[in-house]
Amino acid sequence: MRLSSKTITLLGLAVVIAIAPVFFPSSFYYRVGSLIFVNGLAVTGLVILIGYAGQISLGHAGFAGIGAYACALAPVHFGLHPALAAVLGAVLSGIIAWLVGRPILRLKGYYLAVASLGFGVLVSMVLANEAAITGGPDGMAVEDPGLRGALKAIGIDLSNTEFWYAFSGLILVIGAWLALNLYHSPTGRALRALHGSEVAARAVGIDVAGYKLKAFVISAVYASVSGSLLALQNKFITPDVAGFMHSIEMVTMTVLGGAGSVIGAILGAAILTILPQILTVFQEYEQLLLGLVMMLVMIFMRDGLLPSIARRLRRGGE
Amino acid sequence: MKLSMTTALAGTLALVLGFAAPAFADIKIGATVSETGPASFLGDPEAKTLKMLVDALNAAGGINGEKIEFVIYDDGGDPNKARTFATRLVEDDEVVAIIGGTTTGTTMAIMPVAEDAEIPFISLAGAIEIIDPVRPYTFKTPHTDRMACAKIFEDMKKRGFTKIGMISGSDGFGASMRKQCLAIIGDYGIEVLADETYGPTDADMTPQLTNIKGKDGVQAVLNPGFGQGPAIVTRNYAQLAIGLPLYQSHGVASDSFIELAGAQAAEGVRLPGTALLVAGLLPESDPQYAVVKAYKEAYEKATGKPVSTFGGYAHDAFAILVDAIKRSGGSESSAIRDAIEATSGLVGTTGTVTMSATDHLGLDLSAFRMLEIQKGGWKIVE
Q1: What is the band of A316 on the pLDDT scale with cuts at 50, 70, 90?
Q2: CA-to-CA distance for A95 and A234, rounded, in angstroms?
Q3: Signal sequence: where (chain B) (predicted)?
Q4: Cα–Cα distance between B199 and B64 in angstroms, integer?
Q5: Alpha-carbon Rg of chain A, whole angstroms?
Q6: Is pLDDT above 50 for A1?
Q7: 0.90 cut: is pTM over it?
Q8: Three-state DSSP class for B29?
Q9: What percent of chain A has pLDDT over 90?
């Protein structure tokens, strides 16, 4: 039986996630792992938008913020279960992305970037200023979803960090699976076609505006779920999650690892999540070194980090 | 040759230390503060203070003969990073206690980690939510906004003011303090006749102040705020010749406030501040005299920068922790927690700390000094 590249990629990802804990010197690494998965999920969404459809967004942290605050607010105000609140956040993000996306996706290049940036800033300002609802800049607590407790009841007793490592890992694999499926679907082909040339895509009958919007909405839902996961595992959230820097971080991870490939982008997320932890030794130079790494990658590996591996993976499948 | 000698020496030393380690296990203390980022004006003096104090303590032989091993991370004011570093301190570095949480946001992110791991955590942030309700492993050193309000209202009551006007900043600090002040103002029999607000970047507060001026019966004005807003309020206040006593908050208790507002406009303004701000004015009989003087001199010598209240919070957190480790006689986290809770009469830069099972701050109103600005300088008025 021949395995498709998609299956190999997914299996590889799942195996790495499952085996990595064997090499963890302490349970702190579970925390780093779960952060990589949370970031990886948001970045997978951006691969669909940036890598497949060729559109840029500097406001996706806004959707992460919506997802995160849905988990914080819905249980308090509507008595909703936090896990359901994450679903609500995803739906809400999708709807907002659809409403916002319709007008701003008419814009191209820099203009699209600036418009999406404006949206992200708007969300973080609302979260910071509506202190009566959101707790303002000081943030607010998030209820425990009780999933860990449920596992404990059936005999699987995991520590907090272990649980979130496993859970975010699972969600990431699902997210990657969906994104890879999309790549090979008619929608994925349409997205890649309009990435190549909008005019040509339109000429062969692709609804360019419609597909762009689809990619925007899907990536917004990814960002929203990643925000929810972050809020649920931190049990506390501040407007920083929707901040401009978080948006930039997401795009940087995507581009660093290679915007065209899901695994490449997840690798980018892993590197940019781990790097600050390693660089604490050079605390004063942390930003400097991060900047240097970014510049070197951009100059010498324009397709993103480890492009050869990504390319080989892709070649193997087609 | 010289190099290899050094290497050999270092090697021998490492070997000796390595063998000695079981007998003199270092005590590992962790910190995560916002050395960079938007809260760096708070976090930077905190980090400098902690590093300076650790070095001084180790040079003096450590605690009960054991050296301190100090791990400090910079969370950049990001709560998510703060939580990651707190997890790292607990799981990877295996510290016995954590100092940190420069802002309320980072503190609230670190707190669940410390509580889960049952490791004592001393926060350096202001909000009352950190210690109310009391959580077993969380402590803090800075006084709360509510205490600043109480100090101001006490002074107003003493001067016979019962009807005041308020003008508050709408930023996090101003909004929180306004809320705390309004919550306790009734206890002092004081009534707010005018309640105005301004945005954190507003450049002119004349309209709000004119409203207050127009209200009959206002005897004094209170301005809870942070940053440049209060300086502008003070200048506008003088320009409008309102002529009523003006109270500012502890948020602007620094020399730069007088510079910003101008000595003439700031004349007669009262605010609650810590002993550290007026270190030079304290009489030798003052209980905090020695502590404040020693810290100020050491900090200014080590960094070449003027001492700040925020560094003082870190100084006190470290003093409380060291005192607790000494008394608990070991490096057991739960014993250190119990010892911190039993802290009694410890003199710090912000006040004299006496904790209990229901009070994880341990400061009373004497922690604040009512200060008045006179001729461009500070004067204690009590």
Answers
A1: low
A2: 26
A3: 1-25
A4: 52
A5: 19
A6: yes
A7: no
A8: strand
A9: 45
Question: Which of A239, A135, A131 is closest to B197 using CA atoms?
Answer: A131
Q: What is the pLDDT of residue B19?
A: 39
Q: Which residue of A has its CA nearest to B200?
A: A129
The total number of residues shown for chain A amounts to 318
- Output the CA angle B285-B290-B293, nearest 5 degrees: 115
Is this complex scored with an ipTM above 0.90? Answer: no
Cβ of residue B44 closer than 8 Å to a chain A Cβ: no
pLDDT of res. B323: 93
DSSP state of A2: P
- CA distances to A15, B178, B230 from B170, in Å: 51, 9, 12
Q: What does each C-alpha distance from A174 to A46, A177, A233, B79 come to in angstroms?
A: 15, 5, 18, 28
> If 0-12 CB within 10 Å is exposed, 13-18 middle and 19+ buried, where does residue B112 land?
buried
Kindly list the distances between the CA atom of residue B45 and the CA atoms of A285, B7, B302, B309, in Å, as whole numbers in the listed order. 19, 36, 11, 9
Going from N- to C-terminal start, the domains of chain A cover 31-243
Helix (H/G/I), strand (E/B), else coil: B379: strand
Count of CB atoms within 10 A of residue B278's CB? 18
**Domains in chain B, ordered, with CATH?**
2-143+291-367 (3.40.50.2300), 146-273 (3.40.50.2300)
Among candidates A26, A138, A280 on the partner chain, residue whose Cβ is nearest the Cβ of B91: A26
The tens digit of pLDDT for each residue in A111-138 reads: 888 899 999 999 998 998 887 788 777 7
Residue B42's SS3 state is helix
Strands B352-353 and B346-347: antiparallel
Tokens of A262: 């899901």
How far apart, in whole angstroms, are the C-alpha atoms of residue B333 and residue B97?
A: 7
Amino acid in the structure at residue A206: I
Contact call for B175 and A235, based on CB within 8 A: no
Chain B neighbors of A68, CB-CB under 8 A: none
What secondary structure letter does DSSP report for B39? T
Within its chain, how far is the Cα of B317 from the centroid? 9
Provide, as residue numbers in chain A, all residues whose Cβ is less than 8 Å from the Cβ of B80: 35, 230, 234, 240-241
More confident: B272 or A308: B272
3-class secondary structure, A62 = helix
The burial class, CB within 10 Å (0-12 / 13-18 / 19+), for B302 is middle
The confidence score (pLDDT) of residue A314 equals: 63
Measured CA distances, A163 to A18, A226, A228 (Å): 13, 16, 15
> Which two three-digit tokens encode residue A171?
């969600």
In whole angstroms, give the CA distance from residue A148 to residue B54: 39
Model confidence at A317: pLDDT above 80: no
- The C-alpha of A237 sits at a distance from chain B's nearest C-alpha, in angstroms, of 8
Smallest Cα distance from A231 to chain B, Å: 9
**Other Cβ atoms closer than 10 A to B288:** 22
**Contact status, residue B358 vs residue B134, Cβ threshold 8 Å:** yes
φ, ψ (nearest 5 deg) of residue B183: -70, -30
With CB atoms and an 8 Å threshold, state whether A280 touches B127.
no
Q: Does A31 contact B91 at a Cβ distance shorter than 8 Å?
A: yes
